[in-house]
Amino acid sequence: MATAAKLRIVHRTTESRHLDQIESVVQGGGATSDLEEVSASWRRCTAELLINPDGETAPHIVTDSELRVSREPLGQAIVYAQEEVDRLYTIVRQERYVVLLCNTDGIAIHHRGDEAQAEQFKYWGIWVGGVWSERVEGTNGIGTCIAEERPVLVHRDQHFRTRHIGLSCAGAPIFDPIGRLELVLDASSMTSNQSQTLALAATKVAARAVEERLFREWFRNVWTIAAAPSDDSSPALLLAVDGDLRIVGADRVARTTFALDDERLSGGVPLAMAFDHDRSIFRSNREEDVAARFTRVGTDEGWHVLITPPLCGSKGWRSATAVAIHSRPRISMLRNAPIAESQPPNRGGLSPVRTHRICEYINSNLDQNISLEALAEMAGLSTHHFARAFKQTVGIPPHGYVLQRRIEHAQQMLRNTDLPMSEIALSAGFSDQSHLARHFRRITGMPPSVVRWEQR
């Protein structure tokens, strides 16, 4: 009982000290460096929102029907955020964080967390359905991020309400493709570990990746440019450029950097007004990303650039896999992407990148059925055009290349293993031992048994 009484006294003392800090900051007293980060929010909560910092009100949780209504207009955005939410949770889960994806009303519409601790998270309101706007909960990582439209770390006694001084919340804004706040990504913990700085850094990276996915999906039918200054003097940005090389879309960073707004973008802004660039990069027959170096107009400032061609173009419909690949984030790759030497157009054949990818696929799937249709789909061509382009590039038809690789694989296994011939046949993609023997003799001029015997 004595121990419990002491804990209550310590808790009341901590709360009292917290209330004194709020009063000092609100009345204009000097705030310590850690409180300066949230001082504007504390003043808002006191003067505008009239929140009682000592209130014991339980967390506000929306009903299931209210949650469905909140999710509905953001269904597509949630889908594109899912992979980054999962990746962020993988990073912070060991420190007992829950990851929340919230709308601009501060409602947690999606989450990842340890279900075994769900009741504890729900007690604090850091679970799906929780409402974390400043108007409801005062200064916090989600609500203050919404109010100030910037990444925010609110750690323990930086919260406004005394009820929340045991929490740590790292929130980062997610802006839509035209620069408006659409979502907030948050990592919150109820433990007293010192991982909050890492949590904020990881949350900012994940939020930016979601923004990039949304931008690339929105502008999937035009060229997309990811760019960052070589000296890291400012953040990376995203531009969308049409076939006439006019900027028709810009993310929030690009809008600020180049003074772009909806009115200017609606008419298209020449890319040449932003960057000096090589127009030949934007050839209509490109299908892979192209790394390049641009120079900002009017300066000697070099920029790393990664250019992604339109998804559809003249090819029309694309598979779900192609859509997923096209929308994947690339900003993190900017500084490491190799810049290819200028090459003449590959007339009729496959590009080196596509040839490598297809051959790699064949080499990794020799024990499977490799159809011409599957290879043609990887290349984005009809089977007829693919077969012709492959032969022009590699020198033999696709079927001949696959058979040649199967025989070479069988030869390696005959020389280096003691596996039965029947197992080698299946591993190399032949239906049975006789099938292998027939093709092996035709191509090498000898039966498989001779190759094995020579190794003895």
UniProtKB/TrEMBL annotation:
InterPro entries: AraC_XylS_family_regulators, GAF, GAF-like_dom_sf, Homeodomain-like_sf, HTH_AraC, HTH_AraC-typ_CS. GO terms for molecular function: DNA-binding transcription factor activity; sequence-specific DNA binding. Residues 356-454 form the HTH araC/xylS-type domain. PROSITE patterns: HTH_ARAC_FAMILY_1, HTH_ARAC_FAMILY_2. The keyword Transcription regulation applies. Keywords: DNA-binding, Transcription, Transcription regulation. PANTHER family: ARAC SUBFAMILY (PTHR46796:SF6), HTH-TYPE TRANSCRIPTIONAL ACTIVATOR RHAS-RELATED (PTHR46796). This is Helix-turn-helix domain-containing protein. It comes from Alloacidobacterium dinghuense.
